[in-house]
Amino acid sequence: MAIYKRKNDRTNYWYIDFIGANGERIRRSACTEDKQAAQELHDRLKAESWRIKNVGEKPTYTWEDAVVRYLSEQSEKRSLETDKFHLRWVDTFLRGKSLNEINKQVFDKLKYEKLKTGVSNATVNRMLATVRKIVNEAANEWEWCDAPPVVKMLTEPQSRVRWLTHAEVDRLLVELPQHINVMVRFSLATGLRERNVTHLEWSQIDMDRRCAWITAEQSKSKKAIAVPLNTDALAVLREQRGKHETNVFVYQGNPIETANSKAWRKALVRAGIEDFRWHDLRHTWASWHVQNGTPLNVLKELGGWADLSMVMRYAHLSSEHLAEYATNSARKVATNVPHLSHQQKMRRVK
Fold first, then answer.
1. 14 is catalytic
2. What local confidence, expressed as pLDDT, does residue 61 receive?
3. Is 160 in the active site?
């Protein structure tokens, strides 16, 4: 069998099937509905297989080959679904290309086409970074292609720090349904990220010792986080007791998958709060800490950040640690100056 179509295949693509020169069976999609194009690809791959075995020519790997290997090797990556989202969009432009064909001009085209969809520079950069990582892996780790091109990223605005005042939080809590209200209060009491809140289990909590913990597998920094529970956090946990056997936060008896729901967004509108995301609750928690005097190195440990640079974005919210040095620039008043006679003063004036 050379080329064929699969029954009930939604893509309607042709598929290739042949025995290579080394005896290995090659089966793959031609990624085209054009029979002639599929046959040409089949013939080219079969010829390449012969040259690889008999002439020692290096095999030609395609973008699809690299994606398949990348996804298999990154199966435990926490942001893999985000990578897949970008890769589905990229597939239209890179499908069928050999890795050596993905040059600077191809990256520039991806950049231009993605910008046309109206997304931010940051989103374009995340897409480019995903493609660049795969091409880099193919070149440097797998030796499937030549050295990858240098990719220039777009300029991104500095990361924002959006936080709420206590009065704004009070206004928001009134508008929230109860199952979201308790998660917001717990987030503001602990600073935990959304997924660590929605997936929190009772096995991670010790009410007597007033602490909770996030395992290394659940943490963005891949390090376990100890979470001290203040009075507000403990009050929320007491409200949640008995609602579910394993999960702390539930809706209608079922564990909550995401907090960023329509109910959350509608409550923000009713409370008159604009430009605010769920993750900004973490910014609010950190901002309140700094304003109340928590040292930045302590905040780093409380929030489970990997390094201090991530915490420095909040440094401007407090100047108490600088107050003792503020007078160092004050003009010093001369003391023990000898008394000058009227004649000496006049001579100085002249």
1. no
2. 85
3. no
